[in-house]
Design goal:
mainly alpha
């Protein structure tokens, strides 16, 4: 399995980078709990701007962390190198691509496992951020 062999460093980097995302989302939830989004109030523009900038930073950090981890997945890099997929306008390329991917079922299943791992970590980040924000706001 890739994350237990040559992908250990990428996997551990991915896990290390989850901590800032939890911190940013917790902070955003604490600030966002004090905002009233039912009405437009120009008086709290600074808090709203801070909230939105922290949320955008957290989303960008999550996207960067995820894409960095998945881009280091060696079988996916090999797939990009081996196939020259041009697009759906070229059905012979699509057939070749499907045949190549089907011949490497183990790598495909591992990629699905890694994507599920990423998705579960995102859910864990949200759950932990909500609990941390509720403890901070008490």
């Amino acid at each position: 399995m890739y994350i237990l062999d040559e992908g250990r460093a990428a996997f551990l980097d991915f896990l290390r980078n989850l901590t800032p995302q939890v911190l940013l989302l917790s902070l955003a939830l604490v600030i966002g709990a004090k905002l009233n989004f039912d009405k437009v109030d120009v008086g709290n523009w600074l808090h709203t701007l801070i909230f939105l900038s922290i949320v955008i930073t957290a989303v960008l950090a999550g996207c960067a962390n995820t894409t960095l981890f998945i881009s280091k997945f060696a079988p996916l890099q090999q797939l990009r190198h081996d196939t020259h997929f041009v697009g759906p306008r070229y059905p012979e390329s699509l057939k070749t691509f499907r045949a190549y991917v089907w011949s490497r079922k183990k790598d495909l299943l591992e990629l699905v496992f890694i994507v599920l791992l990423v998705e579960l970590s995102i859910v864990a980040i949200f759950i932990h951020s909500i609990f941390a924000a509720s403890k901070m706001s008490l």
